[in-house]
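<tokenise_the_fold>
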Amino acid sequence: MADNTTYTEGSGISVATDDVSGVHHQRVKIEQGSDGVAADISPTSPLAVRPGHPSTGFLTNASLSFATSGNNTLVAATASQTTRVFRIVLVFEGAVGIKFISGSTDQTGVMKMKDGGSIVLDFDGEPWFVTGSNEAFIANLDAAINVRGFIQYEKTA
């Protein structure tokens, strides 16, 4: 069956509508794409909710527990994808310096934490960190101290 049709009132073709206070509003499917392209929204082609950054709209939640001096991978790299960190909570069980890294590029300087200290970067709609394509999101510790918490992120092409 062809996707395109012409409509002549009274010809018997059904059109999806929603009756709002006696007025019919036509229901439509959302498509997106560059000029001359119309792609249906789907899990493999999610709606771009931020210009230039397609998003599934769903964040991946991961618990964190690490204690190695040096680099600790919080989110592993994925080929041809960036990681966008929207929320992170860390609690430190000792005094330690921490910095965040994308691949091999420092995203922050060293932040000195006290025993029982915490970092809380809450969700506000924009990512706190964005890695380069095919780069891991890493926390580097200057001492072997237990760190626990969680992270919420998404990966995008």
